[in-house]
Amino acid sequence: MLSVTGKVVNISNKEQPVPEIRVVLFDDAKHELYQWTFDAGVPTLKPGSESAFVTRLSSPPAEARNLDVRFAEAGDKR
């Protein structure tokens, strides 16, 4: 089981939308092995607010050594 936790923080002075979050797993050679996106759990954040998130993958690839977490962009695969 792989569990990825973090928090989204709005450091601006206005309410902001919270996009989906994308996680990508890589092997030692930085080849992409697996990726998924998930909803952060809140549609927007007020200035200075934060929201914790967690996502889990029950059977991550055994070769996975690194991961990247970022906001998903339009067109990212689920």
Can you offer a commentary on this structure?
The strands form 3 sheets. The protein has a 3-stranded antiparallel sheet, with no helix packed on it. It has a two-stranded antiparallel ribbon with strand order 1-6. It starts with a strand and ends in a 7-residue tail after the last strand. The chain is mostly beta strands. The model has no long low-confidence stretch (mean pLDDT 95). It contains no helices and 7 strands.
The succession of helices and strands, N to C, reads: EEEEEEE
Which spans have pLDDT < 50 for at least 5 consecutive residues?
Answer: none
Count of DSSP strands: 7
Distance, first to last CA: 19 Å
Report the principal-axis shape: elongated
| Mean of pLDDT | 95
Rg, Å, rounded = 14 Å
Strand content: over 45%
Largest sheet: 3 strands, antiparallel
What's the helix and strand layout?
Elements: E1 2-9, E2 16-17, E3 21-26, E4 32-38, E5 44-45, E6 50-57, E7 66-71
Antiparallel strand pairs: 1-6, 2-5, 3-4, 3-7
Keyword list:
78 residues; mainly beta; three-stranded antiparallel β-sheet; two-stranded antiparallel sheet; 7 strands; 0% helix; elongated
Concise account of the structure shown:
The protein is mostly beta strands and 78 residues long.
